[in-house]
Amino acid sequence: MAGKAPYLIGITGGSASGKTYLLALLQQHLPADKAVFVSMDHYYRDLAQQPREPDGSINFDKPEAIDEEKFYGDILALRAGRPAYQREYTFNQPGKVPRLLTFHPAPIVIAEGLFLFYWKRVRELFDLRIFMDAEEPYRFMHRLRRDKAERSIPEEVVIHQYLHQVLPAYKQFVEPLRRYAHIIIQNQYGDLLPALRVLLDHIRAAL
What is the residue-wise DSSP string for 116-139? Predict the structure, then answer.
């Protein structure tokens, strides 16, 4: 893609705060040839490469669970007008064969992820940084419903992970990232349409 460099938008926030939902809304409203969408979820390291907790368990809610090097390289490629390729992350669902995802360069690059602004070099790639802010009960209930329905995770496992991994990681690693955001979106009841309209106007101006 020759000419003007793409405009990069990053979306971060706590688990189940609405990052992926906002990404999906933007995808519905933007022409397919104008924007490319990248989720950091697909950049989790393989299980064999995941660091272990003292009890031997894996904590996916720490920055080191993400292959930051690969993610950074792929965003750089898109910024330079080159495609990027990444194997789909299937959330360890047995029997689901991961696809090879292709991210094509576009005038707008929109990425979302739990630790998107954690690494300075990644954070500074984005022209617009958005933090999704949702209250604690909302995030917990949304994650509980999602993990049971979409990822077939037993309720007791979801609750244990949330209390012992998700919530501590949010307070330690994610919540402090608010200070790097240009825009903070309050997602209390799942109504993101007002924020969506503002973002779409901003994106059209950038285009």
Answer: TTTSHHHHTT-SEEEEEE--HHHH
